Structure of DUF4127 family protein:
Amino acid sequence: MPPSPRVLLIPPDTRPPTLDLPAQLARMTGAQVRVPPPQALPEFFTPGDTDALAAWLEREAADADVLVVSIETLCLGGMIPARRVPDDVSSAQARLGVLERVKSRHPAVRIYAAGVIVRVAHDNDPHEEKPYYGQWGRELRAYSAAFDRHARHGAGERAALDAARAAVPQDVLADWLGTRERNRALHLRALELLHAGVLSHLCVTLDDTTEYGLAAYDRRLLEARADDLGVWEHLDIYPGADEVPCALLARALRPETARVWVRYSGTDGARAGLLYEDRPAGDLVRAHLRAAGCVPADTAAEADFVLAVNTPGSRQAHRQPDYATVDTAQRHLPAFVDDLRADLAAGRTVSVADIAYPNGAEWRLWRLMQPLSLARLAGYSAWNTAGNTLGSAVAFGKLAPLVTDRAEHAGALFSRMVDDALYQGWARSEVRSRLVDPSPFDLGAQRDAAEAHLRDVITPRIQALWDTHFAAEGLDLTAGPPRLAWPRLFTGVFPLTVRGRA
């Protein structure tokens, strides 16, 4: 790998965690990162320009070492548009051909690709899914679970499957299943490119998944094909989505295997249940370590970094505080923070992954961490799903030895603390409480008011966090006005620039 690797990044979409964060992680190691022009990338459910993306890739690849590409963006215009656009399977698969052309013309370029198995959304979102999902989401979820139960357990589940099928209009079901089949065919084609050596590594992830459902069914089909092709050395299939560019960059920029000591906030943390994944926390951690090119260490002393994972007592919950399954006697947060303090004092590289609750930091842990030197952490993550959080935290930790730009690293770390803890863990609910019955899917006319409340609520907290933990590091912060990424409260945008002090 050259001292300043040249990276091309085609992200799943343009939200800060999917575009800005992977770019920051690469730049903090000295890598040069280029992304397509904004007009070629997706905007919420509006697809990007797949022709422009292919042309950009062919034009830029001659001067690149690494390509990290979202298959859904390259072939269907984005991760969300991939659930909505009507493009046929042949057109979608043909767009993968640009990767073959790039590899043929530039054999030294290493191509890392990510695909996302179509999710079965947990809520009735008519914007991130097809419009009919707003009306038929519950019935489609029921069909999804019934289909997979029947596929696994046989005739005893037939009556439930027939009832679930009858509850959905047949044109809606046919269209919904057709989208899944098209995207599965795209991933099967990607497996063939991996087998042919076009791709250096492929991650196919399950977004917002469950133990039973069509995503699990698709996973088994892809795994069977991977078995046939013998490509598992360069393949990962596991729960995740938005964070995968970070994992692939960690694998690409630091190809050697990293050893990781995983410390949980409870002795049974590895067994904790998760709301948006199909497996317990320990198995999910192992999958994310492998995706980034890491393995568990036997002791903290021999590890390249410590992954400190805050798990729920027995199972995640949506609202905090939750004393039934999250903040229970099955974990001990003060002792967990004591271990963080000891690790930092010993000079260990530490990355924190807070997965006690989905969609933001646990506020109790965040308060307990305040006496620590937070700027000394290698990484911090607490956003959206457990998989999103873990993949980001692992990437921070693996890339830590390569950091050459302290300001870039501090900017990435501070941005996650602002977004995951200050916004998702606290300010988002504060802003919501000031609005009038806001829709979780579209704020409509209340967007301007929401952004005004956001600026009022979070701006002083951002400055206070910087002054307390980062200002003494010889760095300066410039903070722009916060806003929302899309017309909903789910994702905030916090323009933060960190530079070395003159």
